[in-house]
Amino acid sequence: MAVLFFISHIAPLTFFYFLLLSSASASFSSPTADTDLNITSILSSFQNLTSFSSLLSSTSVASDLTRRQDPITLLAVPNPYLSIPPSSDLTRRFPSSSLGDILRYHILLQYFSWTDLLQIPPSGVLVTTLLQTTGRAPANFGAVNISRNPLTNAITIQSRSPDSASNATVLSLIKTLPYNITILAVNSLLVPYDFNLMASETRPPLGLNITKALIDGHNFNVAAAMLAASGVVDEFEADEGGAGITLFVPTDGAFGDLPGSVRLQSLPADKKSVVLKFHVLHSYYPLGSLESIVNPVQPTLATEDNGAGSFTLNISRVNGSVAIDTGIVQASVTQTVFDQNPVAIFGVSKVLLPREIFGKDSAAVIPKPGITVQPPELSPPPENSAWLINPASSPQGFHEGMNSDGQILRAQSCIVVLYCIVLYLLA
Q1: Angstrom distance (rounded) from CA 356 to CA 326
Q2: Are 365 and 162 in contact (CB under 8 A)?
Q3: Residue 129 gets which letter from DSSP?
Q4: So what's the pLDDT on residue 63?
Q5: Which residues have a Cβ under 8 Å from the Cβ of 309 and sit 6 or more positions away?
Q6: Which of 38, 68, 115, 300 has the greatest number of beta carbons closer than 10 A?
Q7: What pLDDT, in 10s, does the model give residues 237-280?
Q8: What contacts 49, CB < 8 A, 6 or more positions away?
Q9: How far is CA 95 from the centre of its chain?
Q10: Could you tell me if 400 and 18 are in contact, meaning their C-beta atoms sit under 8 angstroms apart?
Q11: Where are the alpha helices (DSSP H) in 186-310?
C-alpha cells in the first residue's frame, strides 16, 4: 500500500513537469514563415522609410516581393540618406524601369539575422540579388559582396566587381521576421556594375493604346468596350512603366459562353472593376516566361487593391499550352494579341471569374481597398531606438520585441497546465 501511495502522489508531479517542459519548448519554436508578406505594409510602421517604400510601390517591386515565397533580406535606404547624393541623383536620373532594377539589387535572396551578419568573414561572402533572376544583369553582376570589418564589425555591401565604386554600409537592423525576411537600413543606394548597358535603362517607353490594340485584334470587342466603359484601361496604361503588365483578355466567344447564372454586366461598378483587374498581372511576361514560370500562383492588379493572397491566378503549362486556373474556371491562352516589352496581351478561352466574387463562398464581401493582413510585430519602431547612431549593434528593445510572442505562448501553456491539474484533483 505504501508503494501505491507513493506512486499516486509522484505521478501528478511528474505529469506537471512534463507539461511545463512541453510548453517551454513550444514557446521557443521557430515561427512559421508568412508567404504573403506585404512589404509596404511592413515598412509603413517606419517613418524614416516612407520614401523608399514609395519607390518599391511605384516601380512594382513591392508586388514582385508579394509573389516570392523564399526568405529574403531587404536593404532599405532611410529618408535622410535617400534625399542626398548619390542616392538622390539616381532617383532623379533614371526612369522607373531602371529604378526597379536598382531596387531589385537591394533584395538579397538569402535570410540574414543580425548574428549571421556578425559572423561574415572579413573576406566577404557573395550573395545573389533579385536582379540576377531577371536576366538583365551581365554575367553574374546581379550579386553583391558582403564583408565585415573585424575591428569595428561594420558591414559593407558592394558590387562584386573590383572596378565598381558603388557601396553601402549597414546602419542597423530595422526589423526581422525570423527565417522569412530581414530589413536592414543602409546609407546609400547601390548601383549594379555596368548598369548603363542594361536593357532596363535603354528600353523605350511604349505608350500603347490597349483598347485600340484589342479592337485591331478583331475578336476582343466586348473586352475593349468593358475596359473603356469602366475606366480601368487608363490605370493599365499607366502601369506600362516599371515592371510592365500582362493582360489576359477573353475572346468575344468566351463572353458568349458565360452561363446564365453569371451576370457580369449586372455587377456593381466597383466589383466589375475588380474582375477586369483580375485579368492583369503587374509584370511583363512574354509567352516563353509564362510557359516556364517558377511560381505558379501569381497576384493580379486586383490583389494589390484587396490584399495579399486574394484574387490570385494559378498559371501552369498543360498539354503544351499555358493554362490559367482561378479556382472555379480553367482557361487557356489561345493567341498572342500583342507582345512588346513592357506590355504583353494574350487572348484566353474563358472569362476569368474570381472565386472571391463568383465562388460558393462569395457571400463574403470583397475587402475594402487598403486593408491588408498585418504581419506580426517582432521589433519596435526605429523612432524609439538609436539605430542610426550605432551601426554595429542591434536596435534597442529588439530582443524584447522578439520575446513578446513567446511570453504570450508560455502564459497560454501555463493555463493549460493548471487546467490539467484541477481536472486530476477533481477526478
Answers
A1: 10
A2: no
A3: B
A4: 77
A5: 36, 303, 373
A6: 300
A7: 766 555 678 999 999 999 999 988 888 888 898 999 999 999 99
A8: 43, 76, 78, 79, 174, 185
A9: 22
A10: no
A11: 199-202, 210-216, 221-230, 232-238, 252-256, 269-277, 287-291, 301-306
Nearest Cα to Cα of residue 177 among 30, 307, 308, 63: 30
Low-confidence stretches of the chain (pLDDT beneath 50): 1-10, 16-35, 197-205, 363-407
Nearest to 206, CA basis, from 249, 246, 238: 238
| Distance separating alpha carbons of residues 278 and 281, to the nearest angstrom | 8
Which residue type occupies 115?
Answer: T
For residue 174 the three cell numbers come to 530595422
| Distance of alpha carbon 60 from the chain centroid | 10
d(CA 61, CA 43): 14
Q: Give backbone dihedrals phi and psi of 116, rounded to 5 degrees, phi first.
A: -60, -40
DSSP code string of 277-298: HTTEESS---HHHHHT-S--EE
Sheet holding 280-281, edge to edge: 280-281, 245-250, 343-348, 330-340, 321-325, 312-318, 297-299
Whether residue 153 contacts residue 139, with contact meaning beta carbons closer than 8 Å, is answered with no
Q: How far is CA 411 from the centre of its chain?
A: 33
| Cβ neighbours of 326 (radius 10 Å) | 23
* Residue 334 backbone phi and psi in degrees, to 5: -105, -25
User: Residue 365: which residues within 8 A CB-CB, separation 6 or more?
Assistant: none
What is the reported pTM? Answer: 0.45
Contact call for residues 401 and 377 (beta carbons, < 8 A): yes
Phi and psi for 235 in degrees, rounded to 5? -70, -40
Q: Is 190 helix (H, G, I), strand (E, B) or coil?
A: coil
Q: What domains can you pick out in the chain, each with its CATH number? A: 39-201 (2.30.180.10), 205-353 (2.30.180.10)
147-150 long-range contacts, CB within 8 A, separation 24+: 147/120, 147/121, 147/122, 147/123, 148/117, 148/118, 148/120, 148/121, 148/122, 148/124, 149/122, 150/122
Q: Each residue of 328-355: pLDDT tens digit? A: 999 999 999 988 777 889 999 999 999 9
Name the residue with cell 520575446. Answer: 403
- Cα dihedral: 27, 29, 33, 37 (round 10): 30
Q: In terms of DSSP H, where are the helices of 128-206?
A: 199-202
Half-sphere exposure of 247 (CA within 13 A, CB side): 33
- Helical pair 50-58 and 96-104, crossing angle rounded to 10 deg: 110
Q: Are 198 and 164 in contact (CB under 8 A)?
A: no
